TrEMBL record:
Pfam families tied to this protein: His_Phos_1
Name of this chain's protein: Phosphoglycerate mutase-like protein AT74H
Record: residues binding substrate: R71, H72, G73, E74, S75, E76, G77, N78, R132
PROSITE patterns given in the database record: PG_MUTASE (PS00175)
InterPro entries: His_Pase_superF_clade-1, His_PPase_superfam, PG/BPGM_mutase_AS, PGM-Related
Domain of life, per lineage: Eukaryota
Catalytic center residues: H72, E160
CDD domains cross-referenced by the UniProt entry: HP_PGM_like
Molecular function via GO: catalytic activity
Amino acid sequence: MPVLSVTFAPTPAIPFSRHRIPSATKIQCCSSSQANNGYASSTFPEKQRLASSSVAGKVPPPRPHRIILVRHGESEGNVDESVYTRTADPKISLTEKGKAQARECGKAIREMIKKDGIESWKVYFYVSPYRRTRETLRFVGRAFERSRIAGVREEPRLREQDFGIELFGTNLQFSRGKKGNFQDREKMRVEKKLRNLYGRFFFRFPDGESAADVYDRITGFRETLRSDIDIGRFQPPGDRNPGMNLVIVSHGLTLRVFLMRWYKWTVEQFHGLNNFGNGRMMVMEKGYGGRYSLAMHHTEDELRKFGLTDDMLADQEWQKFAKPGELNYDCPMLTSFFTHFDDERSTSDSKLIMP
């Protein structure tokens, strides 16, 4: 599969008011209270804040400035597929090159955020529980002091596509000292060839997942993420920091499916996407109306290399200026579903030129 190597263009600095950075020596999950029939009204203060804001008509908490998607650094499995025959997929580590890629990615993220000119900027991380993504997180995180890290959440729904259980034997018997969950290298090669013939989105590996299955669990994660954004879960109650940046550390296919789900891309459009390289990132930046657009940070050439079509690029331009909740009634992707518009246009044009 072609690999997208992305370079990043600086974004213009936006002046914001100065915010105090709170002390971060301790993390307080919740506090106790005997109010409300024994239920702690302060256990989830962000929910209380959201409810009071809705009632009072107050402005909701500021949306994070960016959602940054990071693919893990080069792993042992990326350079030697035989690793999967002796190491379970969730336990595969980064190579030394992968660790260096993650460190450079962290530095690039920091430099990108600093150019915003927001004094109190912070980052909040979501990470797949696989070893290679957790290691990537650690090396990315070295670019940030503790006061800049608002929090981190391990999210199993961000895990790699499950390629199935290939047994070395029958009835879960031991074979060569191994038991289940390890891949048969030759059989996996055959399955991947079948996937290319069948279609990457719908092909399901035996006892594993299809990209469509990943889409279903990513839909659940997306709803959690949207809820977190709406209630301002990333910052302490009362804070209105406009410089929050979310970083999602995951896997190539999972991140492409995430983008597909977020922007409602079709299966055909998904099939046209290219993987972005190990330790690389795609940036969804908040546009002028409050929605997130890839076109706010990336150039047209970068997005075309990723696989975006003319229609997808046009939609990203619309996303730059649209407000949350708005619909694109002139969505150019309509033409991918309906074929009679050209006939209507031709009929209309012919009427205009009739004597």
